What does this fold into?
Amino acid sequence: MSYYDKVFAVTKKIPRGRVTNYGAIADFLALGSARMVGWALNQSHFMGNIPAHRVVNSKGELSGRLQFPTPTMMEELLEKEGVEIYNHKVKNFKEAFWHPGEHLDQTEYE
It folds into this structure.
């Protein structure tokens, strides 16, 4: 399984209505960096079934929003799932945050 495949697999596990950040995925996989996760997710738009909109930066900001087909698509997708957004940032970020290390078995991604 390639690094990108691992990032995509973890991203698919993020529940609807929850978000994680690039660094949490990178830490969970113990490979690469938050920036590498961002690069991988930028490629996921060609796949169509990766919920990349659920991955934000460490401050809860929709930093990847400009990589979507429209600048508002990421926000629209999150709001459709019940995630509140204000000024391109997840409101109640701590409550909406989902950490893969607390919910997934790391050995499945080695």
About this structure: The chain has a mean pLDDT of 94. The first strand starts at residue 20 and ends at 21. Helices lie at 3-12, 22-29, 34-43, 73-80, 93-96, 100-103. Residues 13 and 100 are 8 Å apart (CA to CA).
